[in-house]
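User: Could you write out the 3D structure of this protein bound to adenosine monophosphate? I've included everything you need below.
Assistant: Certainly. Input first, then the structure.
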Amino acid sequence: MSGFQTFLMVDWSGGNDRGPSPKADAIWAAVIREGRAEPSVYLRNRQCAEDWLLRFLAEELAAGRRVLAGFDFPFGYPAGFAAHLVGSGGPLALWDWLAAELHDSPSGNNRFELADRINAGLPGTGPFWFNASATDLAHLPRKGRDRAGHGLPEHRQCENLAKGAFSCWQLGGAGAVGSQALTGMASLSRIRAQLDGAVSVWPFQPAEAPIVLAEIWPSLFAAEIAALTQPEDIKDEVQVRHLAAKIAAWQGQGQLETALNAVPDLARTEEGWILGLNMDSAGLTPPRLKNDCFAMPQGVDWVPVAEALDRLRAGLVPVTLQETVPLAAARQRILAQGVTAPRSNPPMPNSAVDGYGFAHAATGSGVQRLPLVTGRAAAGQPFAGAVPAGQAVRILTGAILPEGVDTVVLEEDCATDGAVVVFDGPLKARSNTRKAGEDVVAGTEILPAGTRLRAPDIALLSAVGLQEVPVYRRLRVGVLSTGDEIVRKNAAPHQIYDANRPMLLSLAEGWGYEPVDLGHIRDDADLIRKRFDRAAQEADVILTSGGASAGDEDHVSRILRTSGTLSSWRIAVKPGRPLALALWQEVPVFGLPGNPVAALVCALIFARPALSALAGAGWTEPLGQMLPAAFSKRKKAGRREYLRARIGADGRVECFASEGSGRISGLSWATGLVELPDEAQEIAPGDPVRFLPYSSLGVS
Ligand code: AMP
Ligand code: MG
């Protein structure tokens, strides 16, 4: 895509401007052309604005300048609305429909009547509301709360991210955008038709035409705009001026293309999207950790486990960008944004059983004999007509309740000869039926940001019609081993095989991250440094094992110290030695002990929740269970202990015979860890101890 030479930002206005005297804030347009801001243009009403826009855009077109034109009203409606009005024509057919149906002049317009007419064609009451005219309109409620059962979501996907955005169903009242949307889409439809072929509407069309129209939302920059606005300024004017500057700057910084591309499917096909909505959270640069995020206050000698965890928790934020993935690839991915249901589940009231449906009001107690109508209602095969009161229809599980049916009697409770169905009354009204939305109501949040998606979550997302979700990119976890004694094959007697790296890589993978094998390095400062440099490019977080203490051969901690950020945490935990924490070129490094048992315990207790926070899923704590011990043990006060353990056949927790921290066999024998508290404790068989199953630590 070649760039834009002109940025035009327009603050639209939805009300009736009866002119000719100018209103304080009718319509404002700000222009930045060839990098220079021009005086903002005041447009008295929509008709003036439409004329001016047409002239302006035609001139730019003739001059060969590409224009990005932003407008502060929704370019689309929540999922399902366009299809209702214009079938498969999509959002731009809806624009054309509005252009044909909305009559708009400075002396009046029919927006309330039109909204009333649209509402009348939809079930229930709404979705449009707010009637500013004196005359009551049968289908346009004056209050938002009087709406029900219209079946459309309250918000578009993008509005669920845009905190404080108004619903486009609201046609009036302070801050409402509904009237701006109706009138704006109609105007832009005409402009598009007249500049035939030169205009594309983002994100419904690729932003490639000479003129690109896009939706903007000044509130995205509310704080910046408030800071810029002087008492004598007109806010609308400041807004468009600031947005023009801001968006022009994005192009300069190479970020505009990202903003234009980072849009979910539903926005493209139907709902539209606010330009730049995802710039902060899904922009080019993920948030950085603070340089001192691992700092320990001076004079702290031994840190209790709980305090170490609190400190880690406080210093860590998500460090990855966002992307959109199809549900089929979404298991274990972490939602970057809360997800709102575009559709209710069930979408319509339906039958919970196989049986016979009828109107409850026409039945009573005693033996009921209802003639059967011809035909039946089955799942996926709705009954076409209405069922008269006093008659019944054959209905199967999952079938939509036909018109006239509110109650279903179970097949097993009936006798029938095919013409009449007989059963004992009374039945409770609405027996054996499911209400529309009794599971999920369209427009409500079904999963919050930070959710790590599991198979049942994927079922939920699928059931409401979603095919893809916004997630954090998979955290790349680099794993590095150090030590002169470690080799990959043909180990001599003084050499050993690397156990930690394969273990940590498979842990990372099991936790849902992308394992990045950074290999093994000899205890050589230069080599380690070079590997860290490479790792900082290839990984979002680095786990090392070995060489992390303060001894002669502890090269990892020595090198991390040169980055100036090393903090050696002497955690009161067994097994474990100092945990070396640092940033290497802004990438966090967790220096784990070399002993495999300590490496695993430290990875599970400290690295696992930390990685979860870095990945966007927030802090996590293992769910332990209190179980009777099958062992006796005496422990001193002052540090927390983790024992390799498993649940025996009698339901009691056994511990591995040796506590030696080189005993890898014990890690494999175990099915979890026993956590003994910091205080002194004397455990006798049968005493309750806290067991953390491997599964609660993500070990599988
Ligand atoms: P270090 O922390 O480097 O002093 O290592 C402590 C102990 O863990 C030594 O006995 C090392 O040989 C052993 N060790 C270090 N790294 C690994 C590894 N990747 N796999 C197996 N054992 C290791
Ligand atoms: Mg070593």
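The longest strand covers residues 366-377.
User: Perfect, thank you.
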